[in-house]
Amino acid sequence: MNSICSRCARAVLWLSLYFVAFAHAAAPEAEVKRQAHELLLAAVDANTPGIVILVTRGDEVLFRGARGRADVELDAPLLPGDVFRIGSNTKPFTAAAVYKLSEQGRIALDDPLSSYLPTFPNAAHVTVAELLCHTSGIKDYTETEGYFDAAIRADVSTSQLVDVFKDLRVDFAPGTDWKYSNSGYVLLGAIIEQVTGKPWHAAIKELLTNPLALNNTTYDDGSALIARRAAGYSVDAGGHTVNAPYMSMSQAAAAGGLVSNADDLFHWMSALHSGKVLRADSYRRMTTPAALPSGRTGDSACGLAALRVGGEAAFEQVGRDPGFMSETLFLPKSKIGVVVLTNTDSPHTDISVLAAKLAATALGRPYPQRRPVALKQTQMQALAGEYQRAQGGRRTILVREGRLYTHRDGGMDHVLRAASENELYFDEVLDYFTVTRDASGTVTALEEFANGEQPPLHSPKLGDAKERPQR
Length: 471
Prior knowledge:
Elements: H1 2-21, H2 29-43, E1 51-57, E2 60-67, E3 69-71, E4 76-77, E5 84-85, H3 91-103, H4 128-132, H5 158-165, H6 182-196, H7 200-209, E6 218-219, E7 233-235, E8 241-243, H8 253-256, E9 258-260, H9 262-273, H10 280-286, E10 305-309, E11 312-321, E12 324-331, E13 336-342, H11 351-363, H12 377-383, E14 385-388, E15 394-400, E16 403-408, E17 414-420, E18 423-425, E19 432-437, E20 443-449, E21 457-463
Antiparallel strand pairs: 1-2, 1-13, 3-4, 5-9, 6-9, 7-8, 10-11, 11-12, 12-13, 14-15, 14-21, 15-16, 16-17, 17-18, 18-19, 19-20, 20-21
Helix pairs in contact: 2-11, 3-6, 3-7, 5-6
């Protein structure tokens, strides 16, 4: 069985050499177009709510395409320039506006919230920087039970929205942990309003979108006519397309109230990551995850998620509103950008995975195309067990009715495929595992490649799996 270990070592070496060899071998435009077109066709049906994809490298558009319907009832086709609600892709604009005001001396990032909103509970102990990087501990108001049933329909001012969550119990003491919080970005919008004397979206327009000529990026107040705005859709319990529930964008505020289109978002990402928006020190701070007392860093930077694609540093943001989803992904070193927009909040395709695949292809380092193989019952049973995850918690692998399943810490079961007895993967995400064995062939650990990226995270096997009632 030592040959198995040596094969794994050779595979890791091959992958390392692969990334080195292709470090500067960007894919030809034709290959990017081919894959983008295939993914577009697979993502949606032509007669359903649709999807827009834009892939760029530098100033060059490698692919711009759309499929599906902008308005299903009117049978209006979706076009690449159509406008969508972008949800949390609003947050990078809000964060950049705060940094811009900081550069002007109008906001101090390390000031307490009480300097701007003195009546907010515990405001003296929460900083602007903690709001930006989701380390404030202020509870996300969208988690309030029943919030999406009725509250989202009402038009509110920023101060009225702050009143919704100001007295909610905090998740943790400020600066001690990380948790994504829409509330923090509503408060940033309130700070912007306080120091500029203008609505948060008017300040963003003056500071960012007007100077960058982002003419399709604006606030959706529900009454203004917005040219080429796509209608939003959901899917009901029976799998049928339905109109998305109404949501006042005042309820999303500076956390998610903007609309935009693919080209504007590309130009926005390009400008932000090339030094055309912020000074170098501000940009560095915005794109650096916060350090926590535990020694780990937060799960995202300030208004952006930091990750790796094809071995290269990247930044992304995912947005979701009733009826819409958005994904922006940018690799600053290679200047590769991907924008994916949908006018359904229930796309069949994971748009983050789709964007990562396109970026990796444009980079010249495409993710492997795996095909499942059938394992013997004894091979599957050898893999079954509990594993200690490097990030904390446990992963369980089970064999049920001739298939492998896995879940983390009591979560939902997911089907686990096998490319071989020593490589496991998912259909729906890029994560995969290689299997470590001892000299006798006994499984001792999994090496987890989160988002399909190096380096692997070591998960030693603890023992046999404990079956639980099926859900």
